[in-house]
Amino acid sequence: MNMKTEPFNPSRLAPEVREVLAAIAASGAPSLAALPFPQMRKAYKQLGVTLGGDSLPVREIRELRADGPAGPIPLRLYLPEANVAADAVTVYVHGGGWSIGDLDSHDKICRRLARAAGCAVVGIDYRLAPEHPAPAGPEDVLAAIRWLSRHAVELDLDPRRMAVAGDSAGGSLSAMACQKLRGEPFTLRAQVLFYPSTDLSPRSWNFSSRRENGSVPPLTLDLMRVLSDPFCVNFNTKDPRLSPLLEHDLSNLPPALIVTAECDLLRDDGRFYRDALGAAGVPVEYFEVPGMIHGFLEMAGVLPVGVQTIDRAGKFLRAHLA
After folding, report:
1. Which of the chain's ends, N or C, has fewer CB atoms near its CB within 10 Å?
2. Percent of the chain having pLDDT more than 90?
3. Per-residue pLDDT, 7
């Protein structure tokens, strides 16, 4: 679907964001949307290396494998400092438009979250499009969380104190997981959604944030199409596994923290999901970061609000996993 974006006024951006985007433009690096997927994935990972700040120490990291519908699913378990009882666990689902991103691209975020929340964090390396279109990624996320709940005790984790978190596409998959895992033997006690995508159906292209922010890097409308189209191919985009906002029953879901960015084309996805959860009686904390762009958590080394946002998410998780 073709959409004409509105002219964007750069003065809406926070000054530190303007500096970062100017530096990226001056570097001469090609647009992600112009790269083949192998090179796009390398460039995306390099973003976190360059702009993500320090790789904070944690007590221990373990590489795990969960049983999945198409074979083992790589997981990475982070344990916080030695003086923290880390039996509570937050599953982290990385972003990247369902087509890029992995455990390494979000390693710094998982480390920060483990320290801020004082709990174990488990990252999921789910299958990506275009090699594995929908519903492969959602199926992997569900399988990994179920596996973790069954094996939590042997990992010194408490299956009664689990939460889920994710950014962008990972926020969508986290919201989806909360919906699909209702009625399971375990209960997810909280969900943290950082600038999530919640609607990939055709109607979403009419969201005002798509028009207002569709030309704002790093996530432009062109890049969103390049990333999401291979994921959605031959699959109904109204399916809640792709568009959790379209789930007809949002009752009895875990309390949510939803974070959006003012200058992000996914801003309205988060706003509308906040409204839908609230209407269904789900407790929601929501905040929108003024002047900020999509992906700011991955730029925490140059955008201090990324660190502040992880700290706020850590407090939310501590409260709900206590």
Report:
1. N
2. 93
3. 79
CA distances from 206 to 1, 173, 209, 214 (A): 10, 22, 8, 11
Note if 251 is an active site residue. no
Position 5 scores a pLDDT of: 74
Catalytic residue among 264, 268, 269, 320: 264
294 is catalytic: yes
- Residue 46, domain member (yes or no): no
Range of the domain at 200: 55-321
Total domains, the chain? 1
Strand order in the sheet with 73-79: 60-66, 73-79, 120-124, 89-93, 162-167, 188-194, 256-261, 284-289
Looking at 168, 172, 174, 204, which residue is catalytic?
Answer: 168
DSSP letter for each residue of 57-91:
--SEEEEEEE--BTB-EEEEEEE--TTS---SEEE
CB 106 within 8 A of CB 88: no
Total-model pTM: 0.97
Does 1 have pLDDT greater than 60?
no
Which candidate in 106, 132, 294, 320 is catalytic? 294
Runs of H (alpha helix) within 255-302: 267-279
316: which 2 tokens? 């939310």
Q: Evaluate whether residue 12 is within a structural domain.
A: no
168 is catalytic: yes
